[in-house]
Amino acid sequence: MMSPFSKILREIRERRALRQKDLSVILGYEQSYISALETGNKGLPRQDFFNQLQKKLNLTESEQLALERAVAISGRTITIPNDATSAEFQLIHRLEGLLGKLSTKQIQLLDLVIDLSSVESGEAGRKHEFFKENRM
Length: 136
Description:
Elements: H1 4-15, H2 20-27, H3 31-39, H4 47-57, H5 61-72, H6 86-98, H7 104-120, H8 129-134
Helix pairs in contact: 1-5, 2-3
């Protein structure tokens, strides 16, 4: 299963027509490490990896931004706030058991519920294309 970070790393490499082996030589890492990052078998690398990637591949501003966004949502651990309710703890643990098994529709529905909570709290929610596309 590919994380957002894994996906963007692969896209950046492919945009430059590089093989994993080529990128490993350029960055000074083993090809197996690059492969593990791209497949999601390794967690996020250390900062020196990102520094080398930026420096050696001369990432564009949009690539840097996409990479930063992907890194921000690719962590494998979450922190539950101190003020979380018992119901929120239960929900998180139910979801944890479903990770890797959720269908696209289930993810879209969960995302919609989260968007609705943003609308209720006065924040600008995303457009709800889900209903338009799926006619529930």
